[in-house]
Structure formats: structure tokens, C-alpha cells
Amino acid sequence: MNVLTIRKVGVAEKADDVLSVGIAEQEDGGGTCLVFSRSLGPPTEQDIALGLETYSISNELGATTYGGATYELSATTLTIRFTGNAARDLDLPRTLVLDLLVGREAIAELAAGLRVIFDQSASETACDVPTA
Questions:
Q1: CA-to-CA distance for 97 and 76, rounded, in angstroms?
Q2: DSSP letters of the chain?
Q3: Which of 48, 60, 70, 127 is in Cβ range 3.0-4.6 Å of 33 for a Cys bridge?
């Protein structure tokens, strides 16, 4: 199990109806980074046929995996558990613990963004974070 400190969180909805949640080790967005993305529109037949009707996770090296993760979020820590394939795709350990050295508002944004990315209602998440 690896532990990293996260100093930057960003949530953005792009013009093409894709929501992205980014976390980075350094305040300038550098170091170890993960970007979680999901299309907000309905999946196309091609997406479904290719198994791409889920979220993606990319790292700072450009490696990407589709699905294959769960998370738990508290007021100070984000724990991500990857399937074996997802961990291999991203060259990460199966369990990644991220200490969140960001403000409450950033953690609330992270919580809301991850709920959408992982397609969960607020009651389904393993999340103990107050909203903004």
C-alpha cells in the first residue's frame, strides 16, 4: 500500500459533456496525478460494444484504464482500490492511500465529482465528507 500527499484537486465539465476530476501531488499539478473522467451523455453503441460505457482513469504518463476501481473518501484521506488489471494499466499498487492536503471546499468538490464519475448517489458512497 502506497501513501501519497495530494495538494491539488480540480473538477471541470468540458464542452463535450465530459466531467473530469483531477488530483495531483503538487500544487502546480505536477508529480503523481490521476484524472477520473466520465461522459455525462448516454453511451453510444460503439462505447457499449468496446466496454467504454464507464469512467476512465488516467495518470500523469498518459496510461488509461476503464473502470476497475472503488474508493473511500474521508475528510482527510482518499483510498482507491484498483482491480489487478487497472493497477497494471496505471502502474500503481492495488491500494493507493492519498492524504488530502487541500481545503474543505476542494474535498467537497472532490466528493461530488467522484459521486458522478462513479455513477453513485450520495447515499451509496463510502464517504464521510461534509458538503461545502
A1: 10
A2: -EEEEE-EEEEEE-TTSEEEEEEESSTTS-SSEEEEEEESSPPPHHHHHHT-SS-EEEETT--EEES-EEEEE-SSEEEEEE-HHHHHHHT--SEEEEEE-S-HHHHHHHHHHHHHHTT--TTTS-B-----
A3: 60
Q: How many CB atoms lie within 10 A of CB 4?
A: 17
User: Which residue range(s) make up the domain with 15?
Assistant: 2-117
* 125: in domain: no
**Amino acid making up residue 54:** T
- Range from 27-36, 43-52, 87-96 carrying the lowest mean pLDDT: 43-52
Q: Which grid coordinates belong to 60? A: 500523469
List, for residues 49-101, the tens digit of each pLDDT value: 877 668 999 999 999 999 999 999 999 999 999 999 999 999 999 999 999 99
Q: 70 in a domain, yes or no?
A: yes
Does residue 102 fall inside a structural domain? Answer: yes
- Closest by CA to 57, choosing from 101, 91, 14, 98, is 91
pTM: 0.84
